[in-house]
């Protein structure tokens, strides 16, 4: 085995617009649904809102200088739709597009490959008010206007376009990732209707990227599902869960149709999306070129009796282990559960680097497309010491083991082109504010006090710098 990663491997890290930029209504930017959602969560739970976030809008040059110091050769970020089109339609905000021109130029000047995401949860708020946002098929037309403008604007600068971020997470946590009007929140079929509209939008983005001579692919929050026991019933439950939570999305991206077993179940349960003639043909004509994996953990499932109540994915808001609000349950199909074989983060996310190796191997066999990691990280309580240090050995351990898993898969023939963990700098967690930190760079602020958002290099910053400089051979 050759332990070094290829010389052209893309080393970097990731963020998203609403979680780092701030300047939520500055220089002509309109509100997004995430500005509204996070404002409500600020009032309800005390988490920070998105108005300042990590102030990347004003500090992007300082941040890119730190990325350069770490040795980044790539940076995954997102373009805020409402910064370009404040009303979500076709009137361009020149100051908004200039920010991304400046950002991309600064990256290119520092030999960092810009890898932008077109949509990362932040739909312009006027489109929610106009027709309910992603609930309406009308959104696909407005997304096409936005995507066409942005892709054409940067066609000479961008090789890889990431289309839509984490559709499966949007289905599971739809009121956190989309603003869903209260009168629709009991209609769970709309979760899958929103996803269908996103599939149409993602195919539009792939088509536009190809016309511009670029490559395009989705970023999916992907977690393999293991069976709780060796019982055949649990094995079938895990297969069902993988079909509905994973293959239901990937088969559209890379084969052009919905996974048959998952769609059959959704029809039986009254949850299937309404489709128009030609939709799957459009998917098949615009298949993705690569898969951007957002990997944090693996999942576990067991058999579920018919009589159970249907429930959706729970979450841990407190950061106290065991404080999970519940598990997704589909009667007669599967029930998710904790995996007793794995340790967890404080937010009950299983830590499973071998699971990432499993994902690479399994999906490369299924779809034979290149992969890049666009999110992978450990959310934790980071402590800033009195002398201005952050000792995050736990994060280093997590990243080391996942980089090793990536290389093992590559040594078995899997194509992986880049590794961009979550996150480059500390940012606003949609579910947990600034208590839950992921960054290689500490941002000195709290949920209550923005301070100056000073940047401080964590121990993981210096460690990752050595990893990159050594082409992945120095992981100590």
UniProtKB/TrEMBL annotation:
Entry-linked Gene3D superfamilies: Glycosidases (3.20.20.80)
Cited InterPro entries: GH, GH_1_N_CS, Glyco_hydro_1
A GO MF label: hydrolase activity
UniProt KW keywords: Hydrolase
Family: Belongs to the glycosyl hydrolase 1 family.
PANTHER family from the UniProt entry: ARYL-PHOSPHO-BETA-D-GLUCOSIDASE BGLC, GLYCOSYL HYDROLASE
Protein name according to UniProt: Glycoside hydrolase family 1 protein
Highest classification ranks of the organism: Bacteria, Bacillati, Bacillota, Bacilli, Lactobacillales
